[in-house]
Structure formats: structure tokens, C-alpha cells
Amino acid sequence: MAFREYGSYDGVGLAELVRKKQVSAGELLDEAIARTAKVDPQINAVVVKHYDYAQRQIDKGLPDGPFTGVPFLLKDLDILQGTRTTSGASIYKDNVADHTGTLAQRFLDAGLAIFGKSSSPEFGLMPTTESRLFGPTRRAVRPAAQARPLLRAFFLSHMRATAAVPYEFPLPPPACSD
Predict the structure, then answer these.
(1) CB-hemisphere CA count at 13 Å for 138?
(2) Would 48 disulfide with which of 35, 110, 117, 123, CB 3.0-4.6 Å?
């Protein structure tokens, strides 16, 4: 069963639903994966998908934290043991992290279910995400309202370090044209 109301909650709200057992972390993960599959082919934002990693986190039990059970995407600059970490660079295209960095560990300790990594410019050095390894990340087309919640999630999760869930605010203007 998919959790169709996903888009009407923020991270704290989703974690509260998990705490109250009104929805499971697995249902939230399934919905996040479905939304990613629907939107990502057009915007190319999720470059490392490790859904099995998130499912293993859930299966072994997530820590009790403020965001327990909420699906989350790391930037491809963050190191998470056992997952591919490229920093957007072709030279690291097959690099698998041998440890977990401090930031990623804090996200894990908060109870987030990390299901992938979002695109980043090579080594995080450029203002736009157009790596040679994965290609450019595009913005969602405004008329496609179904793409907006996931795009908002990317902005929030990576600019404000909160859970990857939508808030209701207008999308920022595009930095450059498609």
C-alpha cells in the first residue's frame, strides 16, 4: 500500500505518523521510490539509487530520532559506508565509501532512511550541477505539478539539511535555461 498523502506532510509530520504507527517507514520508502522513478528521468537529480540500503536500515531498526522513518537523499558529496560516492567526478565513478562521514552519520542517527544520493557538480565546486559523469540536472517543468513536490524535497534536503519531504512554497526561478 502506497502512502498517497506523502506530499502533504513535512519531515517532522511524517516522522510523527511513523511514531504513531499510522504509516510504516517501509510505506514511506516505497512512496519515495515511486516518486523518484516518476520524476527523476526528466530532471536527472538522483544519481545513486541504493534502495536496498534503506530497506536494510528499516529491517534492522532505525534509531529513535526526530526523523525516524523519513526517506532521505544525501548529496553525492557525502560519504556513506558501502555506497557509491562519486563527488560527481568521472575519476571516482566506481568509488565505494569505506566509512561514513560525520554529516551522513548525523542523518542516520536522526533516524532518516537514506535511499540514494542526489547529483552534485564535480567535487561541489561549481554553482550549477552539470557533471561530466551524470550530465546536467534539469529543473522540473512548471506545468507538471506532480514533479514539484519531489523537486521541493531536493531543495529542502540539500539546502536546509532537513528531511526530503515537500513544503508548500513556490519553486525558485531557474538559474539558467534548459
Answers:
(1) 13
(2) 117
Q: What is the 3-state secondary structure (H, E, C) of the chain?
A: CCCHHHHHCCHHHHHHHHHCCCCCHHHHHHHHHHHHHHHHHHHCCEEEECHHHHHHHHHHCCCCCCCCCCEEEEECCCCCCCCECCCCCHHHCCCECCCCCHHHHHHHHCCCEEEEEECCCHHHCCCCCEECCCEECCCCCCCCHHHHHHHHHHHHHHHCCCCCCCCCCCCCCCCCCC
Percent of the chain topping pLDDT 70? 76
Q: Which three cell numbers stand for residue 33?
A: 521510490
Residue 117 has pLDDT above 60, yes or no: yes
Instruction: Specify whether the CB–CB gap between 87 and 76 falls below 8 A.
Output: yes
Average pLDDT, stretch 38-44? 90
Q: What is the pLDDT of residues 138-171, one digit of tens each?
A: 886 654 454 455 555 555 544 444 444 444 445 5
Contact (Cβ atoms closer than 8 angstroms) between residue 148 and residue 140: yes
DSSP H or E segment with residue 42: helix 25-43
